[in-house]
Structure prediction request, 252 residues.
Amino acid sequence: MTAKVIFIGAGPGSADLITLRGAQRLALADVVLFDALTDPALRAFAPQARWIDVGKRGFCDSAGQATIDALLVRHAREGSVVVRLKGGDPSVFGRLEEELEALGRHGIACEVVPGVTAAAAAAADTQRPLTRRGSGRSVALSTAMTREGDLVAGQRADTEVFYMAGKQLAKLARRLQDAGWPADTPVSVVSRAGWPDRMSSEHRLADLPCAAVLHAGRPTVVTVGMGAMPVAHAPQSASLDHHQALVQTRAS
Ligand code: SAH
Prediction:
């Protein structure tokens, strides 16, 4: 049997946000290496598999990454169907490059199944489209965490979505204003997008630091610019759950 690893995007929240293809491939797994932000309910799709948690603290540094790479290679070489289950989409801030390289070095075949990335789930939860005809033509996905540790923020697109920025909202607001975004630029902050207990808040850029307490300790994306604007005459949310909190800190 040819060694094979399937990367699957689990989506950013509840298990039902995985794609149909993702669920079907997951059902084939002998071994699943999963990340911290994936829903435990996904186990129901592959009860036969051995589930290995590689999302714990300590797996985030480069030594941890080497361990994950080694586990992928070892299990694939043993002939197992190995699923690498990643939160959101594997191609977005998911260390996919390193893992593909590691498998490529060992001649192991791979498949990548896309998933719903957190920015898309946040746009859906808040009913704020990431692109707008005529005025929102570009979207940049940026990480607030760089290898050097410093936050870099610019004005590269009509809508900028920041991942991993939850702990640095004050700095992000400063850097964005330094880069030319006006103080009253709309900003939408969504934590645990796609989960029943998701929360969203809307701000002006200058007030963004207020969001820190509300979303503390939760995975958060920050959408800045056109994609954070409410839709005119937006319909009421017809979401099936009632846990969503919409908090407004925008000055009227
Ligand atoms: N591959 C993932 C991103 C992984 S990086 C994706 O495509 O979504 C981890 C960061 O993603 C978190 O720090 C947070 O900024 C963001 N994130 C992941 N899940 C989230 C969620 N449910 N709600 C809001 N942000 C989320």
User: Anything to note?
Assistant: The chain has two domains: 4-116, 118-228. The pocket of S-adenosyl-L-homocysteine is lined by residues 12-13, 37, 86-89, 92-94, 117-118, 122, 163-164, 190-195, 219-221 (CB under 6 Å). Helices lie at 20-26, 62-77, 96-105, 118-126, 169-178, 211-214. The two ends are 64 Å apart (CA to CA).
